[in-house]
Design a protein that fits this description.
alpha/beta; Rossmann fold; 10 helices; globular
C-alpha cells in the first residue's frame, strides 16, 4: 500500500512538472521582441550608465514618462514593456537588466498575470524566480517591488491583487536586498473605492496626478 501511494504521488508530481514546463514553453516571448530589440538599439547609440536605478515591469513602468523629472538626483533607466508578465521580465533579463548592472531595480509586474488567470501563488512563484535570476548574476542589487493598487477596470480582481501583495510583502520583510512599497491605498477614496480621478480614460493606468503620488512612495525607498 505504501509503495502504491508513493508511486502515485511521484507520478502526480512528475505530471505537474511536465504541465508547468509545457505552460512555460507555450508562453509567447516573441511578442516582445520588437520592443526589446528597440531597447538594445537605443543602448548602442546612447549607452545608459552602469550602476543606475533600473525601472522595469509592465505598463505602469512603460508609461512613466516623467521618471527622470520625478527623480532628478538619480540616474534612472526605464525598461518597462506594457502588457508583460513577470516571466517575460525574467526571460529578457539578459538583455534589459544585466547589461546595466543596476544597483537597484524598481519592479512592478504581475497584474497582467493575475488578469490572465494565474493565481496569486503562481505569480508569487514567478516573482521569486525573477529575484533568484537577478541575484545569481547581481548578488548585491536591491530589488524594490511596487505593490498593486486597485483600479476601476480591474476592480473585480482586487482580492487576487491583495493576496499577491501580502505574499510578496512577507517574502521581502526579512531580506535586506528586497524592499516592498505599499500602494494598495494609493488609488482608493475614503470609502475604499478606486479613485477614477487618478486614472486615465481607460480607468486602468495612472494619469499624471497618479504618478505624482506613486513617485512620492518610491522616493522614500531610493538610496539616500
Amino acid at each position: 500500500m505504501n509503495r502504491r501511494i508513493t508511486f502515485t504521488t511521484l507520478a502526480f508530481c512528475f505530471f505537474n512538472l511536465i504541465c508547468a514546463g509545457a505552460a512555460e514553453t507555450n508562453h509567447n516571448f516573441a511578442v516582445w521582441e520588437k520592443e526589446i530589440a528597440a531597447f538594445e538599439k537605443s543602448d548602442q547609440t546612447n549607452p545608459p550608465p552602469k550602476h543606475a536605478i533600473l525601472f522595469t515591469g509592465s505598463s505602469t513602468i512603460r508609461l512613466w514618462s516623467t521618471l527622470a523629472q520625478d527623480f532628478p538626483d538619480e540616474q534612472v533607466i526605464n525598461r518597462g514593456f506594457g502588457g508583460c508578465e513577470i516571466v517575460d521580465c525574467t526571460h529578457f533579463a539578459d538583455r534589459i537588466v544585466f547589461p546595466y548592472e543596476p544597483r537597484m531595480i524598481v519592479f512592478r509586474a504581475g497584474g497582467n498575470d493575475l488578469w490572465a488567470g494565474k493565481s496569486a501563488e503562481q505569480v508569487f512563484a514567478d516573482f521569486k524566480e525573477f529575484v533568484a535570476t537577478v541575484h545569481q548574476r547581481l548578488p548585491k542589487t536591491v530589488i524594490v517591488f511596487i505593490s498593486w493598487s486597485p483600479t476601476v477596470s480591474r476592480w473585480k480582481g482586487v482580492e487576487k491583487e491583495r493576496a499577491l501583495n501580502h505574499l510578496v510583502e512577507e517574502f521581502c520583510r526579512a531580506k535586506p536586498l528586497l524592499k516592498y512599497i505599499e500602494t494598495s491605498d494609493l488609488t482608493l477614496d475614503e470609502h475604499g473605492q478606486p479613485r477614477a480621478d487618478l486614472l486615465r480614460a481607460d480607468q486602468l493606468h495612472l494619469n499624471a496626478e497618479g504618478y505624482k503620488l506613486l513617485a512620492e512612495r518610491v522616493r522614500s525607498q531610493l538610496p539616500k
